[in-house]
Amino acid sequence: MKNDAIAIFGGTFDPVHYGHLRAAAEVAEQLKVSDFRLLPAGHPPHREGTWADAYHRLAMLELALAPYPDLAVDDREVRRSGPSFMVDTLASVRADAGDAPVLLCVGQDAANGLNRWHRWRELFDLAHLVIMTRPRSRPRYPQDLGEMFAERRVQRTRDLMTTPAGRVRQVEVTQLAISSTDIRRQLASGRDPRFLLPATVLAYIRKHGLYAQAAGA
Ligand code: ATP
Q1: Quick one: pLDDT at residue 201?
Q2: Whose CA is nearest to atom 6 of ligand 1?
Q3: Which atom, in ligand 1's list, is nearest to the CA of 41?
Q4: What's the complex ipTM?
Q5: Does ligand 1 lie within 6 Å of residue 23's CB atom?
Q6: Fewest C-beta atoms under 10 Å: which of 16, 29, 71, 125?
Q7: Which InterPro entries match (predicted)?
Q8: In a domain, 213, yes or no
Q9: The CATH number of the domain where 102 resides is what?
């Protein structure tokens, strides 16, 4: 049976690829979440900027997910002006969710650097953290983050559903060593990244001439 949790998978999706999509599908299935949302970062403060504008990244995500109505796009950061902090985004998701669990899904590389996120400790007041395995990324936590995770770690999905926020669960997903950086590099050097991302997304990239200058990205 599905539960009433809301899952948020945030990212720059610059561009979205099958590593994101397969991980999203598997987490939604394993955690039995019917409300699963991929949420593109609007104006990410923790990176030096994105290559494609937010409206392009949103459009590519919508194309990728168009055949899969059980995986939704949440455009609240793209619609908001100013820097997007996950803590603010989660506060607004929490307002929608009421007392239902909110699950913030991040890959292992993102989890390793979570303590650099704005007001990161408050994330645990707002959501559970679901850490997805990712090729070439092992758990490597600074002490404060490692302690925070150790205190909150649970093994069963059930433990995420009995309380709205505050727990941490690791989820194994199929290891696809695909990254947006690699796709951008391929495009900038004239190679063809087909089969690493949906054909509809690649067609959009070509139509709009995206990532042609992304060498070294
Ligand atoms: P870039 O190469 O530009 O850093 P990326 O491929 O890491 O991009 P992001 O949009 O930054 O993609 O990632 C969004 C989220 O998806 C992050 O939490 C990241 O860890 C996770 N993620 C990205 N690619 C994969 C993958 N292949 N397997 C599992 N998780 C992934």
Answers
A1: 98
A2: 179
A3: 10
A4: 0.98
A5: yes
A6: 29
A7: Cyt_trans-like, NadD/NMNAT, Rossmann-like_a/b/a_fold
A8: no
A9: 3.40.50.620
Does 69 reside within a domain?
yes
Residues 105, 35: contact at Cβ < 8 Å? no
> DSSP strand E in the chain: where?
3-11, 33-40, 71-73, 102-107, 128-132, 168-171
204 close to 59: Cβ distance less than 8 angstroms? yes
Q: What is the DSSP letter of 82?
A: S
Per-residue pLDDT tens digits for 82-133: 888 999 999 999 999 999 999 999 999 999 999 999 999 999 999 999 999 9
11 lines ligand 1 (CB under 6 A): yes
> Residue 97, class by beta-carbon neighbours within 10 Å (0-12 exposed, 13-18 middle, 19+ buried)?
buried
pTM of the model: 0.95
Continuous segment of H or E residues that includes residue 96: helix 86-97
Q: Which residue has the tokens 């459009």?
A: 59
181 CA: nearest ligand 1 atom: 2
Residue 46 is which amino acid? H
CA dist list (Å): 67 to 1, 6, 44, 173: 23, 20, 28, 21
Binding site membership of 180 for ligand 1 (Cβ less than 6 Å) = yes
Q: Which domain holds residue 33?
A: 3-176
15 lies in some domain: yes
In angstroms, the CA 82 to CA 89 distance is 12
Ligand 1 centroid from CA 107, angstroms: 6
What is the tally of structural domains in the chain? Answer: 1
